[in-house]
Specification:
Largest sheet: 10 strands, mixed
Radius of gyration: 21 Å
Number of strands: 13
Oligomer: single chain
Number of helices: 6
CATH architecture of the largest domain: 2-Layer Sandwich
């Protein structure tokens, strides 16, 4: 949709621009009722207006004139028809680029669930935005997530399970096991989603019988909701959208992960000492 493609405030705004002839389809004016087909080219003639700035600090992990990677906080929506979004916070944290084709404000090029934290790519120029969009569509961006799951998940493996009616595939590897008074065991896991379905990691891990800690949506069992959802986008590998050079961006897991493991271990050991 034009509203999604250009980051417009709403569908009604996109319809007004179509009616005014400011959005072209394959080089010509079009009707707002026209459905897009593969290969269609849409153009916005009216300049994008920067959104109202949401003054929320967001860590800029890496940046050049064409794109940036930011560390999205848990609980913040990436974009949408609301004020408190990552997109609206971008101008508070990252100035427009001075490179050719600069966007009037940095734009996220993919999504993370509101409750998921971690690496999010942001385009600073229109050519980078288009190239990154194509790379995600072609699954040329490799992502790794760090999470903790209920139970003692051992080894490594692959999950191939339909998500949202479409094929989806995730690789996982168990890293560390921790005893817990609340869920008996929990496991620190790395996950590499090889497709990009909504809630894919959460669905796949729950399907293994090991839901993400803090995620009560896909299980009826105990998941320690009070901890928040422990799912973190930790690594991105891709070709730079302009130079084509390999780009690797990585963050360590949040400090609260290690704190949580240590606390749960201490509680378990203290309980064992009182029992003996």
């Amino acid at each position: 949709m034009a509203s999604d493609r250009f980051g417009l405030a709403s569908r009604s705004r996109a319809k007004k621009l179509v009616k005014a002839g400011d959005i072209l389809l394959n080089g010509a004016p079009c009707e707002s009722s026209r459905f897009l087909r593969e290969g269609d080219r849409i153009e916005l003639l009216a300049p994008l207006e920067p959104p109202p700035i949401f003054e929320a600090p967001i860590e800029v992990v890496w940046a050049d004139p064409f794109l940036a990677a930011v560390n999205k906080p848990a609980g913040m929506v990436v974009s949408g028809n609301r004020h408190r979004t990552v997109e609206h916070a971008m101008l508070f944290n990252l100035a427009p680029s001075d490179a050719p084709g600069s966007l009037p404000f940095p734009r996220p090029v993919h999504r993370l669930d509101a409750r998921t934290s971690g690496l999010l790519l942001v385009a600073r120029t229109a050519p980078a935005q288009v190239a990154l969009g194509r790379a995600f569509q072609a699954r040329e961006v490799r992502k790794r997530y760090r999470t903790m799951v209920v139970g003692k998940l051992e080894g490594e493996g692959v999950v191939e399970e339909i998500v949202d009616g479409k094929p989806a595939r995730s690789r996982w590897k168990a890293l560390e096991h921790t005893r817990s008074l609340h869920v008996d065991w929990f496991t620190t896991v790395d996950v590499w989603p090889e497709s990009g379905r909504k809630h894919q990691i959460r669905v796949h891990l729950a399907g293994l019988g090991h839901p993400v800690l803090g995620d009560g949506l896909y299980t009826d069992g105990p998941v320690l909701r009070s901890q928040g959802m422990l799912l973190f986008a930790s690594e991105l590998d891709l070709a730079h959208p302009i130079s084509g050079e390999p780009l690797h961006i990585e963050l360590p897991e949040p400090a609260r992960y290690a704190t949580f493991r240590a606390r749960e271990h201490r509680r378990w050991m203290r309980y064992q000492s009182t029992e003996t």
